[in-house]
Amino acid sequence: NAGVTQTPKFRILKIGQSMTLQCAQDMNHNYMYWYRQDPGMGLKLIYYSVGAGITDKGEVPNGYNVSRSTTEDFPLRLELAAPSQTSVYFCASSKTVDLNTEAFFGQGTRLTVV
Amino acid sequence: DAKTTQPTSMDCAEGRAANLPCNHSTISGNEYVYWYRQIHSQGPQYIIHGLKNNETNEMASLIITEDRKSSTLILPHATLRDTAVYYCIVIRGGGNKLTFGTGTQLKVEL
After folding, report:
1. Where does the pLDDT of residue A102 fall: very low under 50, low under 70, confident under 90, or very high at 90 and above?
2. CA atoms of B25 and B41, how far apart (whole Å)
3. Could you tell me which of A61, A38, A112, A50 has the C-alpha nearest to residue A82?
4. Which of A19, B45, B46, B48 fits as disulfide partner to A102, beta carbons 3.0 to 4.6 Å?
């Protein structure tokens, strides 16, 4: 049982490049989330999904896209990388509907845009 | 979801109890209080949650006031490994978003 797995762990992008941050969970959780965390700051919700085929915007969705074709995977897409997107990105998952439970987080992807 | 207010930072001596307060004065009846912590930029880790009653698990205790407008997370015997940012979050029952504030930086010292 691997939990939440994020790849890659580190990445350097040039301005204008695109990339996909991968997130997979093996706990059969319906809820999945993407956050970004700038240095010294708290986590900001980018996008979330309550099940396969359903996604919604969080607090800071601009510049990102997501898809949820399967329960297990929730990739985050950056189309035109900008220096402002330099951050640590965390993916998380939790059970659906019943919030009397906990969210599990991946170890993060550290992205630098230069 | 109700907003929360936490002190920016706190210090605690190793072996002593760490009491981390959280104010959530606008909490409504179906909203839970959750605590997470984040150690040195790792992914956040769930600690404990509660609705009305006080809760205890192997990591911590959660004390919720009778009016539910504030709560305290208690680490009974803090160690250096408990140095982390602690987040108090209020989540509506049946809600679907998990959002974080700025949290409290707890520093446990010898």
Report:
1. confident
2. 29
3. A112
4. B46
**Residue recorded with tokens 């009653």:** B53
Tens-place pLDDT, residues B38-80: 998 899 999 999 999 899 999 999 999 999 999 999 999 999 9
Q: Which single residue is written with the structure tokens 């987040």?
A: B87
- Written in H, E and C, the secondary structure of B45-86 is EEEEEECCCCEECCCCEEEECCCCCEEEEEECCCCHHHCEEE
CB < 8 Å to A100, chain B: 32, 49, 93
Three-state DSSP state, B36: strand
- Mutation site for B-interface testing, chosen from A90, A99, A104 by largest number of B Cβ within 10 Å: A99
Rounded Cα–Cα distance for residues B49 and B69 (Å):
15
Residue B17 burial (CB count, 10 A): 12
pLDDT at B31 over 90: no
Closest C-alpha to A85, from A105, A113, A58: A113
CA distance A31 to B84: 26
Which residue has tokens 């640590």?
A88
